[in-house]
TrEMBL record:
InterPro entries tied to this protein: Aminoacid_DH-like_N_sf, NAD(P)-bd_dom_sf, THF_DH/CycHdrlase, THF_DH/CycHdrlase_cat_dom, THF_DH/CycHdrlase_CS, THF_DH/CycHdrlase_NAD-bd_dom
Cross-referenced CDD domains: NAD_bind_m-THF_DH_Cyclohyd (cd01080)
Residue ranges annotated for the Tetrahydrofolate dehydrogenase/cyclohydrolase NAD(P)-binding domain, each copy included: 146-294
Protein name, entry field: Bifunctional protein FolD
Functional summary from the UniProt entry: Catalyzes the oxidation of 5,10-methylenetetrahydrofolate to 5,10-methenyltetrahydrofolate and then the hydrolysis of 5,10-methenyltetrahydrofolate to 10-formyltetrahydrofolate.
Entries under HAMAP family matching the protein: THF_DHG_CYH (MF_01576)
Entry annotated with the keyword Electron transport: no
Gene: folD
Provenance organism: Lampropedia cohaerens
GO terms, biological process: L-histidine biosynthetic process; methionine biosynthetic process; purine nucleotide biosynthetic process; tetrahydrofolate interconversion
Keyword Hydrolase: yes
Length: 297
């Protein structure tokens, strides 16, 4: 199955197809690790009852099952204290049969996200959020890389080729720890010239218009219009925004105004069906990688 689809508006990058392909590869990798007597195991912790998080956690557990990864699911009430959550993480750190630990974000307000991330053994940090992994990534070392930016890189290489990013100007719109910052590090490692834009940037649209590659990770529906995009740019939309429609329903839209941008872009990811599916596939890839590293393979 091809990961790019020619449409009347130009190339659409099919994240579902790319994720399916990656998951097939992960399935083979799991089988190889199992032959060495190691069963890759992922622990997923959800605190509270946020409906979107509930869906993501269910999808992660299902994806794990499909590729042969054992999963442990911990659903804790919203009233769980930070100390209780940290103890759970500590127990999982100490359990040698567990290779990956993930705490679904966001956590309830009374819990420090940073404290939780730092409590996870960096070797089991399959989200790649721990300072040690962030530092390793920024130094260009092989490490556990955050799943969404890693997925964006795979999609970019589908369009541009393995070495096709070299020398291109990439603009990342958004500077979150989960997406914007690791994305910039990965693009730099791929020899791009990288600009990071954020809410305080002056003339953001003019700067963005210089980009060969645009990564939109702002979290505001359709904020990036055609006037932000240079004709022929490759556009990756990380935004997942739920908006109300005139019919009183809700639907998902990205940070990019797809209908306006697709006709001028060389290629673009849709929302849904673009980057989102790559996040979960990337998590599976990181879990096998963590299992391999822990087994000294
Ligand atoms: N611990 C983590 N928490 C969060 C992460 C993360 O990587 N690690 N990322 C997001 C949520 N997320 C995974 O956890 C995630 C978001 C979206 C998708 C996805 O496949 N989206 C679909 C649409 C799904 C829908 O209909 O709602 C798509 O874009 O096609 C997967 C994973 C925050 N928290
Ligand atoms: Mg086009």
């Amino acid at each position: 199955m091809s990961s790019t689809v020619a449409t009347e508006q130009g190339l659409r990058i099919d994240g579902k197809a790319a994720a399916a392909e990656l998951l097939e590869q992960v399935k083979e990798d799991v089988q190889a690790v199992v032959k060495h007597g190691v069963l890759p195991t992922l622990a997923v912790i959800l605190v509270g009852d946020d409906p979107a998080s509930d869906v993501y956690v269910r999808n992660k557990v299902r994806a794990a099952e499909n590729v042969g990864i054992r999963s442990l699911e911990y659903r804790l009430p919203a009233s769980t204290s930070e100390a209780e959550l940290l103890q759970r993480v500590k127990d999982l750190n100490a359990d040698a049969s567990v290779h990956g630990i993930l705490v679904q974000m966001p956590v309830p307000k009374h819990i420090s996200e940073a404290a939780v991330i730092q409590a996870i053994d960096p070797r089991k940090d399959v989200d790649g959020f721990h300072k040690e992994n962030v530092g390793a990534l920024s130094q260009g070392q092989d490490t556990l890389v955050p799943c969404t930016p890693a997925g964006c890189m795979l999609l970019l290489r589908k369009v541009l080729g393995q070495d096709g990013l070299r020398g291109l100007h990439a603009v990342v719109v958004g500077r979150s720890n989960i997406v914007g910052k690791p994305m910039a590090a990965l693009l730099l490692q791929a020899d791009c010239s990288v600009t990071v834009l954020h809410s305080r940037s002056k003339d953001a649209s003019a700067l963005c218009r210089q980009a060969d590659i645009v990564i939109a990770a702002v979290g505001r529906p359709a904020i990036i219009g055609a006037d932000w995009i240079k004709p022929g740019a490759v556009v990756i939309d990380v935004g997942i925004n739920r908006i109300s429609t005139l019919e009183g329903k809700t639907r998902l839209v990205g940070d990019v105004d797809y209908d306006a941008v697709a006709p001028i872009a060389r290629a673009i990811t849709p929302v849904p069906g673009g980057v989102g599916p790559m996040t979960i596939a990337g998590l599976m890839a990181n879990t096998v990688k963590a299992a391999r590293m822990q087994a000294g393979m």
